[in-house]
């Protein structure tokens, strides 16, 4: 029996991305869904792009004042009719058999909440493919984004996430905060709902278009992990601290190399070579493998520095506002 899905997409000044996303949705082999796109106060609205696909997709378009992506998602859910809500980022492209796979898997293994992995499409730039490696490789993230080997229990993220209307009615909407999808998954799990990975239901994720933007993104991810720790004291796992340990380890090795011998750099060199060769093996591209090394370093150092900064400020020095008070002031409680 086919379910009916509401695809929820918040958008802020992403016209070209929305076109690619809607084009991929128009080519789905199973059309058991509606698209609810909420324009979050964009100065470059994508209404005309939406109208181009109105004949091929069941689509609802809303424009509202800018309040944040979580509130935009909540607004979309309020205007949806699906049995399940599916969340994609606007920079995703959806394989044509996504909903066919999703229906089949949920029929065999019903889940209240689920997610799938993300990957790089062959049409993406080499930098995007290198960043994709940095975000998905076991060597850099421990496989926590849906890898075959994982160091932590899988947590759905809003680039490729879904849950039932029953979950929404009991748990509520997203909080307007960084890592709001991890917060939502945690609340769903605490409410006693089932959560699982549907490995075949992948999306192609474009990621950031340059290393500078990528660094800013992962730096925020590192800081938000401490916010989550304040909300859920038991949520912080050893795998989350590995990038921070990497940063500290690199500093120690560099100091020892300068003070004693360059041989102290061998562990770091060996690790970077492992990244290079695994990236080369997985992408079949020497150029992407070369780019994967700086992409992985940015992923680890950006996240690690954000983690260290927030840990020092909020945990050690106990500075900043109480996170629970801050969350209560936001929408989607």
List keywords for this structure.
single chain; 333 residues; 3-stranded mixed beta sheet; 13 helices; 13% strand; disordered C terminus
**Would you report the number of β strands?**
10
H/E topology pattern: EHEHEHEEHEEHHEHHEEHHHHH
Q: Average pLDDT, to the nearest integer? A: 90
Q: What distance lies between the first and last C-alpha atoms, to the nearest angstrom?
A: 34 Å
Describe the structure.
With 333 residues, the chain is α/β, with parallel strands linked by helices. 51% of the residues lie in helices and 13% in strands. It is built from 13 helices and 10 strands. The protein has helices at 15-25, 47-52, 69-78, 98-108, 126-136, 138-141, 165-171, 180-190, 211-231, 238-259, 266-283, 286-316, 323-328; strands spanning 5-11, 33-40, 59-64, 84-87, 92-93, 113-115, 118-119, 161-164, 195-197, 203-205. The strands form 2 sheets. The chain has a 7-stranded mixed sheet with strand order 3-2-1-4-8-6-9. Strand 1, helix 1 and strand 2 (33-40) form a beta-alpha-beta unit. Helix 5 (126-136) packs across helix 12 (286-316), helix 9 (211-231) runs parallel beside helix 12 and helix 11 packs across helix 12. The longest helix is centred in the last third of the chain and has 31 residues, at 286-316. The chain is globular. The model is unreliable at 329-333 (pLDDT under 50).
